[in-house]
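Let us practice reading a record.
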Amino acid sequence: MTDATTMAGLLTQRATAGARYTAAVQELHDAFIDLAALDKVDLALAYKGVAGHSQVPVRTYASFPETLPENLIHPIFAPRASGPRWETDVEKRRAALAAALASVT
């Protein structure tokens, strides 16, 4: 860790923390999309009675944030996203998972 007693040290620590925050926000997004999509595929498989599906399906995420939740936005390290809504990302991932599964079954 850099020296926190100098301005240069503080700025270096801030930049490092900011880079970690940016990566963490991206990981939160990616994990949310993956988990929500996998839950949707799992739920669909359970309702269809697919052989080998033994878990009780769990309905998760009653709603989706449009983008990064307001309280996680940082003006430099995690600005408001202008890309697709998270729900759109979940649906794309779910469709890809379902297509991949259909191609092997």
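A brief commentary: DSSP finds two helices and no strands in the chain.
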